[in-house]
Design brief:
Layout lengths: L1 H29 L11 E2 L7 E7 L4 H12 L1 H10 L3 E7 L2 H4 L6 H13 L3 H15 L19 H10 L4 H9 L4 H15 L5 E4 L2 E4 L10 H15 L6
Parallel strand pairs: 2-3
Antiparallel strand pairs: 1-3, 2-4, 4-5
Helix pairs in contact: 2-6, 2-10, 5-6, 6-7
C-alpha cells in the first residue's frame, strides 16, 4: 500500500513538474526580448515598454535613410502614436555593412561617429542631424538615393565634425573620439553581430516577432514613405506580414 502511495506521489510530482515546465516555456516564448545593444541608441522607456522594435541600419544605406527620414519628419506623430501610444522601445543597431561590402567608404566614419555621439548621450541629435544634412546636400538632388543613382562622394571628416557641432556635441571630445577610433571595436563587433543575426543587407526590421528586410521608399518622407513606414510599424504590433 505504501509503495502504491509513493508511486502515485511520484507520478503527481512528475506530471506537475512537466506542467510547470510547459507553462514556463509558454510564458518565455511569449515574452519580448528587451535587450539593447547600446542604451543610448533607443527611444522609449525600457522599464515600461511592451514592445521592442529594432532596426538594423547603415547610415549610408539609402533605403535605411528613407525609413528614418520619414520617421524624422513625423517624429511627433511617431512618438505619440507608437513610442508612447503603443509603449514601444525603438532601437537602432548601427553597422557599417555597406563599407564592409565595398559600397560606401562614408559608412565607416558615419558609424564610428554614431557611437562617439552615443558616448556623449547625443546619438539621436547627431543621427538626425546627419540625415538632415545628407537629405539637403544629396538625397533631395537625386544623389545616392539608390544603387543606380550617382553615388555620394567620399566625404571629408570635417563633414561629420560640423554635424556633431551643430547637434550640440562637444566638438573636441567628438574629434578626439573619431581620430583615435575609440568606437571602432564597438562598430566592428555590432556589424559582425548584425551579419550573424540577419544574414542579409540592411535595412532589416525586427519588430517584436515580426521581421522583414528592405524598404522601397521614394525620399518622399512627408507622404508615401511615412505611409510605408507605418505599415511596417503596424505589422510589428499585429505580428504579421503587412501584405497579409
Amino acid at each position: 500500500m505504501k509503495e502504491r502511495i509513493v508511486s502515485i506521489t511520484v507520478i503527481i510530482a512528475v506530471v506537475g513538474g512537466l506542467f510547470f515546465l510547459f507553462a514556463y516555456n509558454a510564458i518565455q516564448a511569449g515574452k519580448i526580448d528587451m535587450t539593447t545593444w547600446n542604451d543610448n541608441m533607443v527611444i522609449g522607456d525600457a522599464s515600461t515598454a511592451k514592445h521592442h522594435f529594432v532596426m538594423y541600419t547603415d547610415i549610408f544605406c539609402p533605403y535605411c535613410d528613407k525609413f528614418s527620414d520619414a520617421v524624422m519628419f513625423h517624429k511627433d506623430e511617431f512618438k505619440s502614436d507608437y513610442i508612447e501610444g503603443k509603449e514601444i522601445l525603438f532601437e537602432l543597431r548601427v553597422t557599417d555593412m555597406n563599407y564592409e561590402a565595398g559600397h560606401s567608404k562614408n559608412s565607416r566614419p558615419a558609424g564610428e561617429g554614431a557611437y562617439c555621439a552615443a558616448k556623449q548621450n547625443k546619438f539621436w541629435d547627431y543621427y538626425y542631424g546627419l540625415l538632415d544634412k545628407l537629405y539637403t546636400d544629396y538625397h533631395s538632388k537625386g544623389i545616392g538615393i539608390d544603387k543606380t543613382a550617382q553615388p555620394i562622394p567620399e566625404l571629408e571628416m570635417d563633414y561629420f565634425y560640423k554635424v556633431a557641432e551643430k547637434a550640440g556635441l562637444d566638438k573636441d571630445t567628438f574629434v578626439s573620439c573619431m581620430e583615435n577610433h575609440e568606437t571602432a571595436d564597438e562598430l566592428d563587433n555590432n556589424t559582425m553581430r548584425a551579419s550573424r543575426t540577419i544574414g542579409s543587407g540592411v535595412p532589416y526590421f525586427q519588430f517584436d516577432k515580426f521581421t522583414t528586410a528592405g524598404f522601397l521608399g521614394y525620399f518622399d518622407p512627408e507622404d508615401r514613405d511615412w505611409e510605408q513606414a507605418k505599415l511596417l510599424l503596424d505589422a510589428g504590433l499585429a505580428g504579421k506580414n503587412p501584405q497579409q
